[in-house]
Amino acid sequence: MQLRDCAIAPAIAWLECNIRPDWTEVQASSSMLRALWQQSESLSLHEGVLYRSFYSDNTVISHYQLILPTEMKVAFLELIHSDAAGHLKLAKCIPHVMRRAWWFNWNRDFKLYIKCCKKCESFHRGQLPRQTNLKHVNPAGSPGECWAIDL
């Protein structure tokens, strides 16, 4: 699928030939291909599949992210959001995506996908009821004279 994707196939060819083209050749290309050109130092091929190195805070590669082809985005987001993360909201799903794949504007696409998730958007409690201010309890005279239960 990566070889069929017009934004990823040239990057694979760069790595196979070990040649990085000039910016003038890439400048008029898609935003995904330009992003891959800028990150060419962190790209690598493993058994013919293009991956991006994800570095931890101390500049050590912590894991590899699959460069996801366009035709796999929806299926991947559905798999992550529905199965791996269990319909959690954006903040808890982001680490699942970051551990597995990368594409240009993945964060924007993921936010949009979660907003359009029918199961997540159908569950809404509505506005919480207003609570009144706490009232002062008259001081009790002797122990056990006044009892209160907090439900």
Largest sheet: 4 strands, mixed
- Please give the count of helices: 7
Rounded to the nearest angstrom, the distance between the terminal CA atoms is 58 Å
Helix-strand topology string:
HHHEEEHHEHH
User: What is the topology, as strand order, of the major beta sheet?
Assistant: 1-2-3-4
- Coarse structural class: alpha+beta
What characteristic shape results from the CA principal axes?
A: elongated
User: How many β-strands, per DSSP?
Assistant: 4
Strand fraction = 5-15%
Which range best describes the helical content: under 10%, 10-25%, 25-40%, 40-55%, 55-70% or over 70%? 25-40%
Mean pLDDT: 82
How many separate domains make up the residues? 2
Outline the low-pLDDT stretches: none
Radius of gyration: 26 Å
Characterize this entry briefly.
The chain is α+β, with helices and mostly antiparallel strands and 151 residues long. It is 39% helix and 13% strand.
Please name the defining characteristics of this protein:
alpha+beta; single chain; 151 residues; 13% strand
3D architecture notes:
This protein has 151 residues and is α+β, with helices and mostly antiparallel strands. The chain folds into two domains: 1-67, no CATH class; 70-120. The protein is built from seven helices and four strands; from the N terminus they run αααβββααβαα. The chain has a four-stranded mixed β-sheet. The longest helix has 12 residues, at 73-84. It starts with 8 loop residues before the first helix and ends in a 29-residue tail after the last helix. The relative contact order is 0.10. The mean pLDDT is 82.
